[in-house]
Amino acid sequence: MADDMDIANDDPAAIAAPTVRGGLNLDAARLFRVYRTISNMLSSRGYMVTKEMRETTPASFKARFSEHPSREAMTVLVEKADDENNQLFVFFAEEEKVGVKPIKVFTDRMRAEGVANAIMVLRVDITPFAKTALSEMSGDFRIEHFKEAELLVDITQHQLVPVHQVLTPTEKSELLKRYRLKDTQLPRIQPNDPVARYYGMKRGNVVKIIRPSETAGRYVTYRVCLGG
User: Fold this and answer.
1) Which of 194, 108, 90 is nearest to 144 (CA)?
2) What is d(CA 70, CA 93) in angstroms, rounded to the nearest whole number?
3) CATH number for the 156-225 domain, one of 3.30.70.3270, 3.40.50.720, 3.40.190.10, 3.90.940.20?
């Protein structure tokens, strides 16, 4: 199907195939796939995503953003389903290698609208100076960044990736109480683990991992995030 672009790599020849592009040019097809993954990611994190974004097809993507999409026009602002004050921006950087200047533009908008969290989607990479700037402003803003190539495929939908569910603070407390544990006694998941990054896990977050089991039907484990 033209709408199903489930390719497990960033192969230009594969993306260029007409059946994969769904009538979009190469850059637009790439952005469509990234946009679709971002939509899934936001929903998985508990943010309210519009029906228009959730159900975006190549045709509707082209109608909304044109044949040659402006990444700036693709900016998204969402809020948590259970907390309207918990908002997050998604910025799509135009520059191939993001420096300090565009980050200042993003943070100025965040400050003006009272938003502390953001995801920055990079065309290619980020400069060392920009990484330093992000670190220095971490007390005021939490800005995660992903390369477009990392978002071409939704890793959580891969058949080899088990179901992950990040626990709420209440669920975490009940788990630790039930098993009489401290969170430091749980197995760990690194903050740079691809799935931990997908869910935006922070230090102290606990994730429930559900794997199929031939004997028990399913096998459940828990891991705590070391940092982030």
Assistant:
1) 90
2) 10
3) 3.90.940.20
- Show Cβ contacts of residue 55 under 8 Å, excluding neighbours closer than 6 positions: none
**Domain boundaries for CATH 3.40.1340.10 within the chain:** 26-153
CA 186 – CA 198 distance, rounded (Å): 21
What is residue 12's three-state secondary structure? helix
Identify the CA nearest to 154 among candidates 12, 39, 58, 52.
39
Q: Using pLDDT thresholds of 50, 70 and 90, give the confidence band for residue 216.
A: confident
Topology of the domain covering 26-153: 3.40.1340
Across 26-53, average pLDDT: 97
Smallest CA-to-CA distance from 89 within 59, 99, 7, 102 is with 102
Distance of CA 100 to the CA centre of its chain: 22
Please state the rounded mean pLDDT for residues 45-72.
Answer: 96
> Residues 223, 224, 228, CA angle at the centre, nearest 5°?
135
Residue recorded with tokens 């039907």: 217
How far apart, in whole angstroms, are the C-alpha atoms of residue 95 and residue 147? Answer: 12
| E strands present in the chain | 76-80, 83-92, 97-98, 117-122, 125-126, 142-147, 163-166, 188-189, 206-213, 217-225
Strands 206-213 and 217-225: antiparallel
